[in-house]
Amino acid sequence: MGMDFSALTPAPEPPVPGPGVPVLDGPGSQTPQSLTRALSSLPEADRDAPALVVATSGSTGTPKRTLLTAGALRASGRATAETTDSDGAQWLLALPVHYVAGAQVIARSVLAGTTPVTTASLTPGTGFTAGDFLAAVERMTHPRRMTALVPTQLHVLLEAAESAVVPADQLHEALRSFRAILLGGAPASASLRARIRELGLPVVTTYGSAETAGGCVYDGRALPGIEVRIEPTTTEGGPTTEDGPDSHGPGSAPGTPVSAVPGLLDGSSPSAVDEDPAARPGRIWLGGPTVAAGYLADPARHAEHFRVDAHGTRWYRTDDLGTLEDTTSLAGSWPGTESGSPTGSGPRPGTGSRSASRPTDHSDAPRPEHLTGQRLRVAGRADDVIITGGIKVSARAVAAALEEVRGVREALVVGVPHPRWGQAVAGMVAVPGLSGTTPSAPTRKESARKDPSQTTPVTRSTSAGPAHPADAHKDAEARETAELEDRLRTAVRERLGPAAVPKRLEVVGALPLTSTGKPDRAAVARTFAAPRRPE
């Protein structure tokens, strides 16, 4: 199903909306109540009426103002209801409404004619907790219920149950009471995906952004009315030192090749990629009625990302790379089953309930017909490619390898300047409970070991032992961190090869987050740019 990307024309720039249109530009810019009033008054007949301006800097620090129309919000809400069989559902709001996923909970509630239940964590200065979540679930009155979370929140819930902060059975029952838990905003780590499968939670992984009115691809499949296309890439050049920072790369005009190194850019094996050129990741394009009107007062960026085809369909050129794989053979299963979903999360939204207070765990639902066909796999951001010694390495693939190590909650990988390699792979790894880290804030604790690219061996103490208990604790902590870093680097080397092994690692209790709960890439980059603390 090919597409001539050169035939797409720039979409008209959206006009600046009037003062009555809500602008989501940070905490406190809207309340659930004010946003409900604004969205309830949108004209039903005018699909192009301005509905929301989502002003974000994202996790990379580049500001943008995205205009969403009434038609885009309605199309998104109806597609979600159809896909999850949740028409008329009550929603639990656990995300801030200045974040598109939080705003969509309000929009979908308006469309469903129900009132959302909010968690106490939406109050400024109040953190998200499992107790808060359970209390909100208890206040829900509708047997058909939905919620949206980011991976960090689901981690918090499951870890609270595992550490007996809340009763595990009660929490698991509460999670299973939802038709679906939409999980997006950041990739789910390997450990989180494993727990989802083990517990049989009704999690649906979502992919999208403010530019597509939130998630428009669920468990790898496009929602009704949404189209996904991959802009082909090339792989000429290979892993040579000549293919460096000046080669074609992210941010180029549509159609410009982005070089890739099999096994490093997408984490797949070189042989598999060489045998199937379609397996090479390319730029992801999303088209359909949920696509935003565009960026306000930003003509260059608007022209780069928003296009229209000959049929009038709006298209958004993402900053992500991915592949489409044929899943026709999976047509008999819901996309959350082991064979058909990135999460393999087991039970899926179904029908029926026990009561308003104790709804059933939803399962055995038929798979919607539109979810057969192709599945999108996201390889990572186009600007996540780290060029180290002339070899292109996917930051997301490295993070995925780090997250496979036991005890790692999540990881975020960036490229940092390096005098020898141009860029070096640097990873921040969240390991709750490790000595020397805190569970609630990222506490920097970088190993004093030398860059592994150097040939000088690491010298470790061989003394009989420290003179004081405090020194013994410090030495034990250092050994624990060193052993973890060995496992982390070994995992990356075995999966992706030596070029992808992080030259710098930071172990923290939790990754720094944006105000919307997503890992803060810019903050991580600043951490690695700062001078190292003296040991």
Automatic annotation (TrEMBL):
This chain's protein is named: Uncharacterized protein
For bias type Pro residues, the affected ranges are 11-20
Q: Which PANTHER family match?
A: ACYL-COA SYNTHETASE, ACYL-COA SYNTHETASE FAMILY MEMBER 3
In the record, the note on similarity to other proteins reads:
Belongs to the ATP-dependent AMP-binding enzyme family.
- What's a BP term from Gene Ontology annotated to this protein? fatty acid metabolic process
- Which regions are flagged for Polar residues bias? 453-464
Residues in AMP-binding enzyme C-terminal domain copies? 399-433, 481-518
The molecular function terms of the Gene Ontology recorded here are:
medium-chain fatty acid-CoA ligase activity
Query: What's one Pfam family here?
Result: AMP-binding
Q: Where is the AMP-dependent synthetase/ligase domain?
A: 42-296
Species the sequence originates in: Rothia kristinae
Task: Give the InterPro entries listed for this entry.
Answer: AMP-bd_C, AMP-bd_C_sf, AMP-binding_CS, AMP-dep_synth/lig_dom, ANL_N_sf
Q: Which residue ranges does the record annotate as region Disordered?
A: 1-36, 231-287, 326-376, 434-484, 512-535
Identify the Gene3D superfamilies for this entry: 3.30.300.30, Luciferase, Domain 3, N-terminal domain of ligase-like
What are the Basic and acidic residues biased-composition ranges?
359-372, 443-452, 470-484
